[in-house]
Records
---
Amino acid sequence: MYKSKLRVLTIFMFCLFFLGLTSVVKAEELRIFSGAGLMKPMEELRQNFEKKNNVTISVHYGSSGEIFGMMSMGQTCDVFIPGAEKYTNDAVKNGWLYKPSIIKIVKHIPVIVVPAGNPLNIKSLDDLARPGLKVALCDPKSAAIGKVSKKLLGKCKLWKKVEPNVVVFAPTCNQLLIYTALDQADATINWLDVTTWAEGRGKVQTIKIDPARNMIKTIPTALHISAKDNPLAVKLNDYIASSEGMAVWEKWGFEACTR
Amino acid sequence: MPTFEDVWMNLQSEEMRFSLTLSLITGLISSVLVMLFSLPIGFALSRLRFPGKGIVRTIMDLPIAFPELVLGLCLILLFGKTPIGAALKSIGINFVFTQEGVVVAQFFTALPYAIRIMKSTFDFISPRMEFISRSLGYTQFETFIKVSLPLAGKGILAASVIAFARCIGTFGTVLILAGGSYMKTETLPVTLYLNISYGNMGMALTSGLLLVAVSFAAIFVFEMTEVKL
């Protein structure tokens, strides 16, 4: 009696195991490594492309440093979209990306972000050096905006004055937005597009940085070297930069690159 | 994959030393605070009957079910720009983006676990001993100190170790409340996360190994001490 029960159980477990195996072998799946700040347009682009082409796309969102690091560890993706061009260029140099597939999509514009109403009347980068001001920035080693903020302030000879005011270096631009929306910092430097998100709507205000001082970045999309001959991956890369794709980018507060 | 030499080099880096020291110091302070609170709370929940006890117990256990990030958000809202936050700031205490915030984050993450263990411990101790002690002239407080606490020795030890391990391993709460800033509020789990986001896998793996080693040491000491009790 006990043995027959055990046999039934074993057969049942085997069936489950094979079911599990067969579910792994399914339709084609594409992988995107994307900067965390591009989450909103990427999710919309992903869903549109999935519907049209009957594929599943998994997107890994992380800071630009993180997704770059994942490729350095030998992890592969089909499409790579960091928060700034520098990461794509470095990845091409390391032989991870297929250079001819690079398409510049949109501009990534740094702005000063303050809590709604701008209670401390911040007008320019110089104001961030005001003694006693609580500034929140992104970690320069982690997120693209962190690197840009440090360079930007360095270029204006403000880094040494602003650094003592920095109360927190957040790992991603998303976390930085939350801190501004929760009124935990007097001023931050973040991407313009991030401030259009619902999380910050009505809670934050943007102040433009003087164009002569600003460092506007470009977001490129590119194919991983392992995906260059995969027609579906090529199609996805092209779709992200297509006019239909651009409409999604613009909807989320991005400005198209004049190609 | 990082080699053994890489791990050894990473262990000696300034960042790793800072992170380990901060983790151990904040972990110890938080664990002591957790035990100071969980002993009376656990005892009260086990021995006292009062209206709304079910609600109180549920509230005490809630953070166990929360993702740590939610707890971090709740704490930043509590200690941020609120009357409570302002009152604390006026006496020079700031929990947002500071090392004190690390302690607070760890405290609230580990407290419910310690309370649960202490409550079960007191549930298993027969109240008869306490009645006898009271009938022989001890006050309730003296009974708690001289009878209940010594009987709860093993439970106190278990709760302390679990609290310490939870404090050392707390990530999401620390990340949100204390900001997870490099070399400022960087505990071991934050080091792991930051180095993943820097694309520095060697350091990330080393901090992971270090976390395992610290937890192993804590639990091993607990097992050894429990045998002796």
Note: Confidence is low (pLDDT under 50) at residues 21-26 of chain A.
---
Amino acid sequence: MNRIEKAFDHGKAFIPFITAGDPCIDKTEEYILEMEKAGADLIEIGIPFSDPVAEGSVIQEADIRALASGTTTDNIFDMVGSLRKKTDIPLIFMTYLNPVFHYGYERFFQKCRETGIDGIIIPDVPFEEKHEVQDIAVQYDIKVISMIAPTSEDRIRSIAKEAEGFLYVVSSMGVTGVRNEINTDLESILSQIKEAADVPAAVGFGINTPQQAADIARISDGVIVGSAIIKIIAQYGKHAGPHIYTYVRMMKEALM
Amino acid sequence: MSNGRFGEYGGQYIPETLMNEIINLEKQYELFKQDPGFQSELEDLLKNYAGRPSLLYYAKKMTKDLGGAKIYLKREDLNHTGSHKINNVLGQVLMAKKMGKTRVIAETGAGQHGVACATAAALLGLECEIYMGKEDTDRQALNVYRMELLGAKVHAVTSGTQTLKDAVNETMREWASRVYDTHYVLGSVMGPHPFPTIVRDFQAVISKEAREQILKYEGKLPAAVLACVGGGSNAMGMFYNFIDDKGVRLIGCEAAGLGIDTDKHAATITKGSHGVFHGMKSYFCQDADGQITPVYSISAGLDYPGIGPEHAYLNDTKRASYVPVTDEEAVEAFEYLARTEGIICAIESAHAVAYAKKLAPAMDPGESIIICLSGRGDKDVAAIARYRGVKIYE
């Protein structure tokens, strides 16, 4: 069984994101374990990309730090393999298509299964192009997570109908990053999703405070937080562990 | 062709936030393409504002000097704003206005596309913001000022390599945050479908005119047409109406910078590999992990790690060939054309002139070649002077 389903078994899911290799790959393993201990339900691991066009400056800078520390796709697979000896938490990759395409789809997804990755989010692969990836991923039981945006409108139904794992609902226009306010009519988007999808829907982009998380969890199945965690790592570097733990715990509690 | 494919290349690899707009753009474009009203309005702008048709100039002295094929220059440098970019921009900004957009944004490398975009926006009354790599705002300071004079806001992009690639990244990000009222005027035959097709169609006027002009002057088709290639819009425009003329060689000239054996070049087809970036599947300069690598060229306009998907397809099917030309060869050609024909061309275009200098002498005097002179070289004079160690003050 794919582990992603389990992520939504303990109430509303808290899904933190971390860029692999920021500030170095050993720390990524440590931080993931801290997040699990603090109550995270599923971890999104970013494979850094030189040009992450769907990200704001916070995550882009994390990608640059990770690449500068010498992180490669193979390093990340090794880290996941080692991590899997210590935890059974659901793990998904988040990256752009080029690193996956360049690695070779077949080889990449085989490696995902071997090391224990459960799914992947690729923000530059929209619904229209997803079969290129999904047709191969499915052979290795790796779920390709689809995204729905405030602009999706009549595409919501088609995307939701075919969704697997869970749905990543983009809370606002633009790129990732902390926002003070989220003005999208998420309730309407989520109710349309519910009519068509039989997988959970989690909301990401811009969420950083417990209050925002709690508000969004009332209408969704979970919240995804990236930039706020990356900011902690940017601030504390190799000593970010306890700070990440405290933040994740506070966010998970807000969802309960 | 599904999702705008040229063979395996092209596609729509963009965030979901932009998909609805891209689909809408594709539908709207199909309507505009068949709309006689739109077409005649655009034709009027091209003729009475941009100054088309551009001349096909017989370079008599260059022909004599090189002693081979007859050389013709397609003078896109004579267009209003000084480059071929105006062809595409008038089309796209007119479309944007008719689609009800109030604002256009664009990336620019050397600044030619940015200046053209700011010009069309001023003319048609749209708000305009331009994203340009910080390094390019420094090396093309004059064009930054021109854009500002035209009422555009110029953003210096400080992320990544601070060049054209990063300007594209920032423009895509900006578009994703204001897609409702904003059209992204993509400047080359790249990006997600339908952009490579839209830009190619608007630039195809170059080869449409050139084909008619050469038939009139020579009574037969040229043996070869040449153009410089960064993203590849002037080359696609120059090639398009010759694609079915199998006897005409299509040659794209890539920026080899300090040489293709160094890591300082932007020769995407010569040195790149298959990848997916900026919305399209094509050739890219990248490392072993699929990270896009920094590229280099003396020419800010060719300093791009990818190439339009239709070029990738023309290369694979061997319908067109792509050759590397170094900075030094381009600078020499830049100086050569100035001295020989009294034309100061863009350093981008000089890459094509450089290759023509090698090609023409080996050809028959009964044959002709056409070089697309994509832009004028005012913007490059200071850079060339610096390259030659001459201190000038602007």
Note: The CA atoms of residues 286 and 292 of chain B lie 4 Å apart.
